[in-house]
Amino acid sequence: MAGEPIVLDWVALSGIAARVAGLARAGGVPDVVVGVSRNGLVPAVIICHALGVRDLRSVHVTRTVSDGVDAGKTPEPVPRNVASLGDLTGADVLIVDDIAGSGATLRDVAGLVRARGPATVRTAACVVNRANWRDHIDPHRAVTYIGATVDRWVIFPWETR
Prior knowledge:
161 residues; 8 strands; globular; six-stranded mixed beta sheet; alpha/beta; single chain; two-stranded parallel ribbon
C-alpha cells in the first residue's frame, strides 16, 4: 500500500469515536453495542460511554493474519465465540469495528447478529481504508456510520509500531 502508515494517537481516536457516537445518536441510541474483537472493542467501549449504553457484547472475528503493517488477509473473515452475542431478539444493535478495509468483516458480523433476531442492525467503522475497499458499493452505503476515510494503513494507539 502506498505511503507511510497513518498513526492515530488517543486524542485522534477519541475524536473519531465521538463522531461515530454522534452519528449513531442521530439515528437513535442503540440498545446493544457489539464490538468486533479484538481491535473493535476499544472504540466500542468509548462509543458505549458516549451514548450511555451499558449492554456491550463482543464477537471475535479476524481477517488479518498478523498485526504488522500491510499484514496478509484470510480469504474470508473467521468468526469465533459467536455464542457470546447471546439473544438479541427485538434489540437495536450497533456493531463497531476499528477499521473496515473491504467491508467483509462488518458484513459477516452483521449476518451473525441478524441470526439472533434483532429489530435493527447498524454498523460503524471508526476508519474506512479506501485503498483496500474492493466492493463496488460505496463504503458509505455499505457501512452505516464512518468516522473517517483514509487511503493508507492505519496504526491505532494500542498497536505496536
